[in-house]
């Protein structure tokens, strides 16, 4: 971290501007050596300065140079941003000049890594930036902002503060037994504090399920035998002709996917090949994929041709999905219905005519109700959704349960303190107060060069 790094921070191409970002002790000195305009060493922090980037006596581009002096910068170091015209040649030429003047090319995510190492952002905030960058809907963006602004970190810090208070009091009891103002921590008093921490961890873990749903969306498999109306349903929901629809059974040979947004949550729709016995090798592969979708989907929309009685193939499908979350659509209500609804395993049933757009609104309402989507849309979005963070919360919860059991068995409080310190460190890993270098390499390598 003693060197100065540089990278193009924008997508290179023909655009209004591109930005070359430089960070490190020599960033101002390096850019100033290339800049014709004000002396950047003498300008105030947080200023924008007009001038030219020069290659000896040649003007390379007309630029605006922003100067940010440490410590209150993105990386905690001196940072300079060169705003140039958005052409590929000029942008690359300016970067080349910066690198030949003493900077080196930044590694992926290195600006953000320096921000973390210099205490400008904790690990939860860093991972929230990744969520914002990859947000596919407004709900994920809002949840990412809760992490970026520190509201998620505050929950963890509050728990750590409670543990710190317990440990401090126990140590006072041990080292200064004569100190009368300190709370004497007995197993009974400790039991109350442990229960509070356990309840908080359980609540965070329970709420994380909402966070994961917001972040990953809901995977919906559209299942049924051939010609039940699966592809027609997908097309109607997507409002585009994405899947091929014909009267020929077995038209869909592979999965077809698309996304819609309901109450701010991404619904990942997967149209599958019709499930039936077949000797066609290609169709058989499609059927196998359909059966795998049944295993992994969060919700199954089971399509049945209501104009015909249930067939052995329908019963096989019902058996395969009986333990899943299912909405059954009895399609073709515009025709006389011959299906026996009582044989549909008590699934939530919707009578529909996909061809005539009937039943689609009811389907949306059922999905909203099953996953409480309206409640999620109006929530405060303070949820943990990152897999690494959730894993550490689970480990912390397991450890606090062990501590609770030891305390209930009247283990000496000063021995329990050792496990409380382990818990304190474990929670510290969530926000990055303790970490392994390999973990940082993995996290920051996901970001682009200019981040």
Defining key terms:
Gyrase A, domain 2, single chain, 3 domains, six-stranded mixed beta sheet, Four Helix Bundle (Hemerythrin (Met), subunit A), 18% strand, flat, Rossmann fold, 13 strands, seven-stranded mixed beta sheet, alpha/beta, 451 residues
What does the model show?
The chain is α/β, with parallel strands linked by helices. The chain has three domains: 5-117, Probable tRNA modification gtpase trme, domain 1 (Gyrase A, domain 2), CATH 3.30.1360.120; 151-213 and 386-432, Up-down Bundle (Four Helix Bundle (Hemerythrin (Met), subunit A)); 217-377, P-loop containing nucleotide triphosphate hydrolases (Rossmann fold), CATH 3.40.50.300. It contains 15 helices and 13 strands. It has helices at residues 27-32, 88-100, 110-117, 123-133, 138-148, 151-175, 187-216, 230-238, 281-296, 312-321, 360-370, 373-377, 387-408, 413-431, 437-444; strands at 5-8, 15-23, 35-36, 47-55, 58-68, 79-86, 104-105, 218-224, 256-262, 265-271, 299-305, 326-331, 348-351. The protein has a seven-stranded mixed sheet with strand order 3-4-5-6-2-1-7. Strands 9-10-8-11-12-13 form a six-stranded mixed sheet, with helices on both faces. Strand 11, helix 10 and strand 12 form a beta-alpha-beta unit. Helix 4 runs antiparallel to helix 5 (138-148) and helix 6 packs antiparallel against helix 14. The longest helix is centred in the middle third of the chain and has 30 residues, at 187-216. 37% of the residues are buried.
């Amino acid at each position: 971290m003693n060197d100065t790094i540089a990278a193009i921070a924008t997508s290179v191409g023909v655009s209004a501007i591109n930005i070359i970002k430089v960070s490190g002790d020599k960033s101002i000195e390096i850019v100033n050596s290339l800049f014709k305009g004000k002396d950047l060493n003498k300008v105030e922090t947080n200023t924008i300065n007009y001038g030219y980037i020069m290659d000896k006596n040649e003007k390379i581009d007309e630029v605006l140079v922003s100067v940010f002096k440490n410590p209150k910068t993105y990386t905690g170091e001196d940072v300079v941003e060169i705003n140039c015209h958005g052409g590929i040649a000029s942008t690359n030429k300016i970067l080349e000049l910066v690198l030949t003047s003493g900077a080196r090319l930044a590694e992926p995510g290195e600006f953000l890594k320096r921000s973390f190492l210099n205490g400008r952002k904790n690990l939860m905030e860093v991972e929230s930036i990744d969520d914002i960058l990859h947000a596919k809907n407004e709900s994920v963006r809002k949840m990412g902002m809760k992490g970026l602004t520190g509201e998620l970190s505050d929950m963890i810090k509050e728990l750590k503060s409670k543990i710190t208070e317990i440990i401090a009091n126990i140590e006072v009891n041990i080292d200064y037994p004569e100190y009368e103002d300190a709370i004497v921590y007995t197993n009974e008093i400790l039991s109350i504090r442990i229960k509070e921490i356990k309840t908080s961890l359980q609540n965070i873990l329970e709420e994380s399920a909402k966070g994961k749903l917001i972040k990953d969306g809901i995977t919906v498999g559209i299942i049924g035998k051939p010609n039940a109306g699966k592809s027609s349903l997908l097309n109607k929901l997507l409002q585009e002709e994405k899947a091929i629809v014909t009267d020929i059974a077995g038209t869909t040979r592979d999965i077809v996917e698309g996304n819609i947004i309901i109450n701010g949550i991404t619904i990942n729709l997967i149209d599958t090949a019709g499930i039936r016995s077949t000797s066609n090798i290609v169709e058989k592969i499609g059927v196998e994929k359909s059966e795998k979708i049944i295993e992994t989907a969060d919700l199954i929309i089971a399509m049945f041709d209501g104009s015909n009685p249930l067939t052995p193939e329908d019963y096989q499908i019902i058996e395969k999905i009986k333990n899943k979350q299912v909405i059954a659509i009895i399609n073709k209500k515009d025709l006389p219905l011959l299906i026996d609804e009582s044989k549909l395993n008590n699934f939530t049933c919707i009578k529909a005519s996909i061809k005539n757009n009937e039943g689609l609104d009811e389907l949306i309402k059922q999905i909203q109700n099953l996953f409480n989507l309206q409640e999620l849309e109006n929530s405060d979005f303070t949820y943990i959704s990152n897999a690494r963070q959730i894993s550490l919360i689970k480990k912390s919860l397991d450890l606090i349960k062990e501590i609770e059991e030891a305390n209930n068995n009247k283990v000496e409080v000063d021995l329990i303190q050792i496990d409380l310190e382990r818990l304190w460190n474990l929670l510290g890993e969530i926000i990055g107060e303790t970490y392994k270098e390999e973990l940082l390499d993995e996290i920051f390598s996901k970001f682009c060069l200019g981040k």
